[in-house]
Design goal:
Blueprint: H1 2-5, H2 13-25, E1 35-39, H3 51-61, E2 67-71, H4 78-82, H5 85-88, H6 103-114, H7 122-131
Parallel strand pairs: 1-2
Length: about 130
């Protein structure tokens, strides 16, 4: 928030939301850089009131905001199943479907990440890969 307020003081979540709202809805956007936010597991932001997720997508919907949200979910129809229409109406409709990893892919990733680690044997890696 120091980049927006110019100060390094602690603020409440409500104050932060208000400052961000002012920032993304102001008309002084030509001088500022675009901001791209990537949210993995976007369903974790779902609450009964949906105020946080609504604010995020509402800022992105503002024409002058220079704010883009990329939301990742394990389900293609998450928006329609979990979020209210007021949230869905703020979301863009560009969806990309990625195929899930197969166990051989996971096995190769684990082997690469573990490198020369001798604590975990090949049989354990294979078993863990098949369990995912």
């Amino acid at each position: 928030m120091a980049g927006i307020t110019g100060a390094r003081k602690k603020i409440t979540p409500r104050e932060a939301q208000n400052l961000l709202n002012d920032y993304f809805t102001s008309n002084e956007t030509k001088r500022r850089k675009a901001i791209v936010v990537l949210i993995d597991e976007v369903d974790m932001l779902h609450t009964k009131r949906e105020d946080v997720i609504y604010a995020i997508f509402n800022w992105a919907a503002e024409k002058q905001s220079r704010f883009c949200v990329i939301a990742i979910s394990n389900t293609l129809d998450l928006a329609e199943r979990q979020f209210s229409q007021r949230i869905v109406s703020r979301m863009g409709s560009n969806r990309l479907a990625f195929q899930p990893y197969e166990f051989k892919d996971i096995e190769e990733i684990l082997k690469h990440r573990l490198g020369e680690c001798k604590a975990i044997g090949p049989g354990t890696i294979e078993l863990a890969s098949k369990k995912v």
